[in-house]
Amino acid sequence: MSGLRYVYAVCRPFGTPLSAQLTGVAGVPPKQLTHHGLVAVVGHVPEEDFAEGPLRAHLEDLDWLSATARAHQNVIDALTVVTSPLPLRLATVFRDDSGVRMMMEQREETFLRTLDRLDGRVEWGVKVYAESPESPEVSEGRESAENPDSRPAPSPVKPVSGRDYLRQRRGQRRAHEEKWEQAEEFSRRLHETLSGYAEDTRIHAPQNAALSRASGRNVLNAAYLVPRSESEAFVELVDRTKDDSPGLRVELTGPWAAYSFSGEDS
Protein backbone atom coordinates (compact mmCIF):
# COMPACT_ATOMS: atom_id res chain seq x y z
CA MET A 1 0.00 0.00 0.00
CA SER A 2 1.45 3.35 -0.99
CA GLY A 3 1.55 6.47 1.14
CA LEU A 4 3.48 7.68 4.16
CA ARG A 5 3.88 5.81 7.43
CA TYR A 6 2.13 7.27 10.46
CA VAL A 7 3.58 5.93 13.73
CA TYR A 8 1.31 5.76 16.77
CA ALA A 9 3.53 4.07 19.32
CA VAL A 10 6.44 1.76 19.95
CA CYS A 11 5.88 -1.40 22.01
CA ARG A 12 7.39 -4.71 22.85
CA PRO A 13 5.86 -7.60 20.88
CA PHE A 14 2.38 -8.43 22.20
CA GLY A 15 0.37 -11.59 21.66
CA THR A 16 -3.20 -10.32 21.86
CA PRO A 17 -4.30 -9.05 18.45
CA LEU A 18 -5.98 -5.69 18.04
CA SER A 19 -9.61 -5.65 16.96
CA ALA A 20 -10.08 -6.16 13.23
CA GLN A 21 -12.60 -3.31 13.31
CA LEU A 22 -10.11 -0.81 14.74
CA THR A 23 -9.29 2.06 12.42
CA GLY A 24 -6.89 4.92 12.92
CA VAL A 25 -5.91 8.13 11.18
CA ALA A 26 -7.30 8.43 7.63
CA GLY A 27 -9.66 5.53 8.44
CA VAL A 28 -6.87 2.95 7.95
CA PRO A 29 -6.41 -0.02 10.33
CA PRO A 30 -3.07 0.03 12.18
CA LYS A 31 -0.42 -2.60 11.46
CA GLN A 32 2.64 -3.87 13.31
CA LEU A 33 6.15 -3.29 12.00
CA THR A 34 8.74 -5.38 13.85
CA HIS A 35 12.41 -4.52 14.22
CA HIS A 36 14.63 -6.50 16.60
CA GLY A 37 12.78 -6.58 19.95
CA LEU A 38 10.50 -3.66 19.15
CA VAL A 39 7.18 -3.20 17.39
CA ALA A 40 6.10 0.06 15.79
CA VAL A 41 2.35 0.39 15.39
CA VAL A 42 1.88 2.20 12.08
CA GLY A 43 -0.76 3.26 9.59
CA HIS A 44 -0.62 4.28 5.94
CA VAL A 45 -1.67 7.88 5.36
CA PRO A 46 -1.97 9.90 2.13
CA GLU A 47 0.97 12.07 1.13
CA GLU A 48 -1.35 14.87 0.02
CA ASP A 49 -2.40 15.31 3.67
CA PHE A 50 0.69 14.31 5.63
CA ALA A 51 3.66 15.51 3.60
CA GLU A 52 5.44 18.39 5.35
CA GLY A 53 3.67 21.27 3.57
CA PRO A 54 0.07 20.00 3.70
CA LEU A 55 0.54 18.75 7.26
CA ARG A 56 1.72 22.16 8.44
CA ALA A 57 -1.42 23.71 6.95
CA HIS A 58 -3.69 21.03 8.43
CA LEU A 59 -2.30 21.60 11.92
CA GLU A 60 -3.82 25.10 11.77
CA ASP A 61 -7.26 23.58 11.04
CA LEU A 62 -8.85 22.82 14.43
CA ASP A 63 -11.53 20.53 12.98
CA TRP A 64 -8.97 18.44 11.11
CA LEU A 65 -6.65 18.42 14.10
CA SER A 66 -9.41 17.27 16.47
CA ALA A 67 -10.50 14.44 14.16
CA THR A 68 -6.89 13.29 13.71
CA ALA A 69 -6.25 13.43 17.46
CA ARG A 70 -9.36 11.32 18.16
CA ALA A 71 -8.31 8.70 15.62
CA HIS A 72 -4.77 8.67 17.04
CA GLN A 73 -6.12 8.27 20.58
CA ASN A 74 -8.42 5.41 19.53
CA VAL A 75 -5.39 3.39 18.52
CA ILE A 76 -3.44 4.27 21.67
CA ASP A 77 -6.43 3.30 23.84
CA ALA A 78 -6.70 -0.06 22.06
CA LEU A 79 -2.99 -0.69 22.58
CA THR A 80 -3.24 0.19 26.27
CA VAL A 81 -5.71 -2.69 26.74
CA VAL A 82 -3.24 -5.31 25.45
CA THR A 83 0.20 -3.87 26.32
CA SER A 84 2.03 -0.86 27.79
CA PRO A 85 2.76 1.29 24.73
CA LEU A 86 5.17 4.15 24.43
CA PRO A 87 3.03 6.68 22.52
CA LEU A 88 4.67 8.97 20.01
CA ARG A 89 3.67 12.54 19.30
CA LEU A 90 0.63 13.25 17.14
CA ALA A 91 1.44 13.20 13.40
CA THR A 92 4.80 11.41 13.62
CA VAL A 93 5.29 10.49 9.96
CA PHE A 94 8.02 8.74 7.91
CA ARG A 95 8.50 8.21 4.21
CA ASP A 96 8.33 4.40 4.28
CA ASP A 97 8.90 1.29 6.40
CA SER A 98 12.66 1.63 6.17
CA GLY A 99 12.42 5.11 7.69
CA VAL A 100 10.46 3.72 10.63
CA ARG A 101 12.98 0.90 11.12
CA MET A 102 15.87 3.36 11.00
CA MET A 103 14.19 5.43 13.71
CA MET A 104 13.78 2.32 15.89
CA GLU A 105 17.39 1.34 15.26
CA GLN A 106 18.70 4.75 16.28
CA ARG A 107 16.60 4.96 19.43
CA GLU A 108 16.50 1.29 20.36
CA GLU A 109 18.27 1.58 23.72
CA THR A 110 16.12 4.51 24.84
CA PHE A 111 12.93 2.79 23.73
CA LEU A 112 13.78 -0.45 25.52
CA ARG A 113 14.74 1.35 28.72
CA THR A 114 11.52 3.39 28.71
CA LEU A 115 9.34 0.38 27.90
CA ASP A 116 10.87 -1.50 30.82
CA ARG A 117 9.93 1.39 33.11
CA LEU A 118 6.36 1.58 31.76
CA ASP A 119 5.68 -2.17 31.61
CA GLY A 120 2.53 -3.08 33.54
CA ARG A 121 1.78 0.54 34.40
CA VAL A 122 -0.80 3.11 33.35
CA GLU A 123 -1.27 6.83 33.78
CA TRP A 124 -4.08 8.34 35.84
CA GLY A 125 -4.87 12.04 35.78
CA VAL A 126 -6.26 13.95 38.77
CA LYS A 127 -7.49 17.54 38.66
CA VAL A 128 -8.84 19.70 41.47
CA TYR A 129 -11.03 22.73 40.72
CA ALA A 130 -12.16 25.47 43.10
CA GLU A 131 -15.06 27.74 42.35
CA SER A 132 -14.42 31.48 42.70
CA PRO A 133 -15.92 32.94 45.89
CA GLU A 134 -19.00 34.96 45.09
CA SER A 135 -19.72 38.24 46.78
CA PRO A 136 -23.04 38.63 48.69
CA GLU A 137 -24.06 41.39 46.29
CA VAL A 138 -23.72 39.12 43.26
CA SER A 139 -25.56 36.25 44.95
CA GLU A 140 -28.40 38.52 46.09
CA GLY A 141 -28.67 40.06 42.63
CA ARG A 142 -28.95 36.66 41.01
CA GLU A 143 -31.64 35.47 43.44
CA SER A 144 -33.67 38.62 42.85
CA ALA A 145 -33.37 38.29 39.08
CA GLU A 146 -34.41 34.63 39.17
CA ASN A 147 -37.32 35.25 41.56
CA PRO A 148 -38.71 38.78 41.22
CA ASP A 149 -41.26 38.07 43.97
CA SER A 150 -38.42 37.70 46.48
CA ARG A 151 -37.25 41.28 45.99
CA PRO A 152 -37.62 43.33 49.19
CA ALA A 153 -39.84 46.38 49.23
CA PRO A 154 -38.04 49.63 48.37
CA SER A 155 -36.42 51.25 51.38
CA PRO A 156 -34.23 54.28 51.90
CA VAL A 157 -30.66 53.51 50.87
CA LYS A 158 -28.11 54.22 53.57
CA PRO A 159 -25.01 55.86 52.14
CA VAL A 160 -21.86 53.75 52.52
CA SER A 161 -18.86 55.71 53.70
CA GLY A 162 -15.51 55.35 51.99
CA ARG A 163 -14.14 53.71 55.12
CA ASP A 164 -16.96 51.14 55.22
CA TYR A 165 -16.49 50.41 51.53
CA LEU A 166 -12.78 49.78 51.95
CA ARG A 167 -13.46 47.55 54.97
CA GLN A 168 -15.89 45.47 52.92
CA ARG A 169 -13.42 45.16 50.09
CA ARG A 170 -10.66 44.02 52.46
CA GLY A 171 -12.99 41.42 53.92
CA GLN A 172 -13.86 40.11 50.46
CA ARG A 173 -10.20 39.89 49.53
CA ARG A 174 -9.40 37.97 52.71
CA ALA A 175 -12.24 35.52 52.04
CA HIS A 176 -10.97 35.10 48.47
CA GLU A 177 -7.40 34.45 49.62
CA GLU A 178 -8.52 32.00 52.32
CA LYS A 179 -10.53 30.06 49.73
CA TRP A 180 -7.47 29.57 47.50
CA GLU A 181 -5.22 28.75 50.46
CA GLN A 182 -7.62 26.02 51.58
CA ALA A 183 -7.86 24.66 48.04
CA GLU A 184 -4.09 24.63 47.62
CA GLU A 185 -3.58 22.94 51.00
CA PHE A 186 -6.17 20.27 50.11
CA SER A 187 -4.46 19.71 46.76
CA ARG A 188 -1.03 19.43 48.39
CA ARG A 189 -2.25 16.80 50.86
CA LEU A 190 -4.12 14.91 48.14
CA HIS A 191 -1.03 14.84 45.93
CA GLU A 192 1.12 13.54 48.78
CA THR A 193 -1.39 10.77 49.50
CA LEU A 194 -1.80 9.72 45.86
CA SER A 195 1.95 9.77 45.32
CA GLY A 196 2.19 6.91 47.81
CA TYR A 197 0.35 4.68 45.31
CA ALA A 198 2.33 5.88 42.29
CA GLU A 199 5.80 5.01 41.06
CA ASP A 200 6.23 8.44 39.47
CA THR A 201 4.29 11.70 39.28
CA ARG A 202 4.13 14.82 37.14
CA ILE A 203 2.63 18.19 38.08
CA HIS A 204 1.41 19.91 34.93
CA ALA A 205 0.63 23.60 34.54
CA PRO A 206 -2.96 24.50 35.51
CA GLN A 207 -5.41 24.20 32.64
CA ASN A 208 -6.54 27.36 30.91
CA ALA A 209 -10.25 27.70 31.69
CA ALA A 210 -10.97 29.31 28.31
CA LEU A 211 -9.49 26.31 26.49
CA SER A 212 -10.67 23.49 28.78
CA ARG A 213 -14.14 25.06 29.30
CA ALA A 214 -14.12 23.61 32.81
CA SER A 215 -15.71 25.72 35.50
CA GLY A 216 -13.66 26.95 38.42
CA ARG A 217 -9.97 27.51 38.93
CA ASN A 218 -7.70 24.54 38.26
CA VAL A 219 -5.67 24.17 41.46
CA LEU A 220 -4.09 20.75 40.79
CA ASN A 221 -3.33 19.14 37.42
CA ALA A 222 -1.31 16.01 38.09
CA ALA A 223 -0.46 12.69 36.44
CA TYR A 224 0.40 9.48 38.28
CA LEU A 225 2.20 6.40 36.97
CA VAL A 226 0.46 3.52 38.72
CA PRO A 227 0.94 -0.26 38.43
CA ARG A 228 -2.17 -1.89 37.00
CA SER A 229 -2.31 -4.04 40.13
CA GLU A 230 -2.66 -0.90 42.28
CA SER A 231 -5.09 0.96 40.02
CA GLU A 232 -8.27 -0.21 41.75
CA ALA A 233 -7.00 1.00 45.13
CA PHE A 234 -5.87 4.28 43.54
CA VAL A 235 -9.31 4.91 42.03
CA GLU A 236 -11.07 4.09 45.31
CA LEU A 237 -8.80 6.51 47.16
CA VAL A 238 -9.60 9.34 44.74
CA ASP A 239 -13.32 8.59 45.03
CA ARG A 240 -13.15 8.82 48.83
CA THR A 241 -11.53 12.24 48.70
CA LYS A 242 -14.47 13.62 46.73
CA ASP A 243 -16.59 13.47 49.89
CA ASP A 244 -13.92 15.32 51.92
CA SER A 245 -13.68 18.38 49.70
CA PRO A 246 -16.72 20.68 50.04
CA GLY A 247 -16.49 23.53 47.59
CA LEU A 248 -13.91 21.68 45.50
CA ARG A 249 -14.30 19.37 42.53
CA VAL A 250 -11.97 16.40 42.09
CA GLU A 251 -11.82 14.84 38.61
CA LEU A 252 -10.17 11.51 37.76
CA THR A 253 -9.30 10.48 34.19
CA GLY A 254 -7.70 7.32 32.86
CA PRO A 255 -6.31 4.79 32.66
CA TRP A 256 -4.18 6.19 29.85
CA ALA A 257 -1.02 5.20 28.09
CA ALA A 258 1.80 6.84 30.04
CA TYR A 259 2.15 10.00 27.92
CA SER A 260 3.48 12.06 30.82
CA PHE A 261 6.20 9.51 31.57
CA SER A 262 7.27 8.46 28.08
CA GLY A 263 10.06 10.99 27.74
CA GLU A 264 8.90 11.52 24.16
CA ASP A 265 9.52 15.07 23.02
CA SER A 266 9.47 14.30 19.33
Automatic annotation (TrEMBL):
This is Gas vesicle protein. The keyword DNA repair does not apply. Belongs to the gas vesicle GvpF/GvpL family. Pfam families: GvpL_GvpF. Transmembrane segments: none annotated. Residues 131-185 are annotated as: Disordered. Residues 139-149, 174-185 have a biased composition (Basic and acidic residues). Keywords: Gas vesicle. The keyword ATP-binding does not apply. It is found in: Gas vesicle. It comes from the Bacteria.
